[in-house]
Design goal:
About 40% of the residues lie in helices and about 15% in strands. The protein has 13 helices and 13 strands. It has helices spanning about 5-10, 20-25, 30-40, 50-60, 75-85, 100-110, 150-160, 215-225, 245-255, 260-275, 305-315, 345-355, 365-380; strands at about 65-70, 90-95, 110-115, 135-140, 165-170, 175-180, 180, 190-195, 205-210, 285, 290-295, 300-305, 355. The protein has a seven-stranded mixed β-sheet, with helices on both faces. α10 (about 260-275) packs parallel to α13 (about 365-380). The structure holds pyridoxal-5'-phosphate.
């Protein structure tokens, strides 16, 4: 592996390896375009057959009976809480190491987020959940960070014991498996995002709620569509958050042609990173659990001298990023919760020391060797 530098780097001194790959992802956009054209010809712009089919196929892939297409991953989380009657005065236990939308959904639903620190695997530490339960706790919202499933056995045991629902933030976890089970099987509701930066990316925003609870699904089909039960009657005042028909067409194309490949390539790339990076003493990889299949929405680890390494890698053309530098309990928006530095030390340590390397399906083995070579060069200086 010594002195492995691709030719392009030798010529320009720069070898851009980016997190963003959307132009490659949609290089065959003409094929999708043709399908979108049909939507226009049919005049079928809201819900309709394209959404029905996508919901059925997407939910099956994640081992759920019902799929509800909504406007975004954030709406999926928010509407699920609303449909479960979780709001004012209720508490939802979740992780401080997540994207803003997890907490935004809890708070805009009217509930209070109660944080529990993470473990070495970057996910909520199930051992700490019980201590955070109060009489007001209604739900647990585990986040399958980077697409690696949380410890769902333990979380399900606690949920059953305390009569709590599990609303999972599975926005990173399309096609992930926990002991062979899809993400919809190990919770009450699993919420997915199809934002352009997620593993299955549409041409704007889109989200899906997947559940095995028929009654809940029926409520959600209605709630995302004004609370209607038919054209003339409204069951309850609700929202307009339908999955756009055009986005369902784009998503169906990826589902039919690419999602298996996308997941496999990410898993393969992460495996090679694991193998190469585990030999560098300045790096701490999260422990890997063979009973879980993570789809590596992100490839994250703890790196010594993170900030300097990030600058070094960026100069080498490697788009290393921090997801994310400030945990949720220390955000300005969380001020009223009264947290301070030190409240969730593992999450804070990760936020201060983590770095993500591009791992998507267009990253080649050569590019992985190059990134690792750059990291070795940095630590040998
Ligand atoms: C992206 C993301 C969301 C929100 O999804 P949107 O579709 O962008 O609304 C929620 N939770 C996590 C962990 C995410 O990464």
């Amino acid at each position: 592996m010594n002195n492995f530098y691709p030719e392009q780097y030798a010529k320009t001194g720069q070898y851009p390896i980016n997190h963003n790959y959307l132009p490659s992802q949609f290089a065959d956009y003409e094929n999708i375009w043709r399908k979108v054209k049909q939507v226009v010809i049919d005049g079928d712009f809201t819900l309709g057959q394209a959404v029905d089919k996508f919901e059925a196929d997407f939910s099956a892939l994640n081992h759920g009976r019902f799929g509800v297409g909504v406007g975004s991953g954030t709406d999926a989380l928010f509407l699920s809480l609303k449909a479960l009657g979780i709001g004012d005065g209720d508490e939802v236990i979740t992780t401080p190491f997540t994207f803003f939308a997890t907490i935004g959904a809890i708070v805009t639903a009217g509930a209070k987020p109660v944080f529990v620190d993470i473990g070495d695997d970057h996910n909520i530490n199930a051992e700490l959940i019980e201590a955070a339960i109060t009489p007001r706790t209604k739900a647990i919202m585990p986040v399958h960070w980077a697409g690696i499933p949380c410890d769902m056995d333990k979380i399900q045991t606690i949920a059953t014991q305390y009569n709590l629902v599990i609303v999972a933030d599975a926005c990173h976890a399309i096609l992930s498996r926990y002991q062979g089970q899809g993400m919809a099987q190990v919770c009450d509701v699993a919420c997915f995002s199809m934002h352009p930066l997620k593993n299955l990316n549409v041409w704007g925003d889109g989200g899906v709620i997947v559940t095995n609870n028929e009654q809940l699904a029926q409520k959600l089909y209605s709630m995302r569509n004004h609370g209607l039960i038919n054209r003339d009657y409204c069951q309850e005042w609700a929202y307009n958050s339908r999955l756009d028909t055009i986005q369902a067409v784009v998503a169906q194309h990826l589902l039919d042609n690419k999602i298996e490949h996308i997941s496999q390539k990410r898993i393969e790339n992460a495996g090679l990173f694991d193998q190469l990076l585990s030999e560098i003493p300045q790096i701490v990889l999260p422990p890997r659990d063979s009973s879980k299949i993570g789809v590596y929405h992100l490839y994250m680890a703890i790196f010594e001298q993170r900030d300097a390494l990030q600058i070094f890698l960026n100069q080498k053309g490697v788009d290393a990023k921090v997801h994310y530098p400030v945990p949720m309990h220390l955000q300005p928006a969380a001020k009223s919760l009264g947290h301070q530095v030190g409240d969730f030390p593992t999450a804070e340590f990760l936020a201060n020391n983590c770095l993500s390397l591009p791992v998507h399906e267009f990253i080649t083995r050569d590019e992985i060797y190059y990134m690792v070579e750059c990291i070795q060069e940095f630590y040998s200086k």
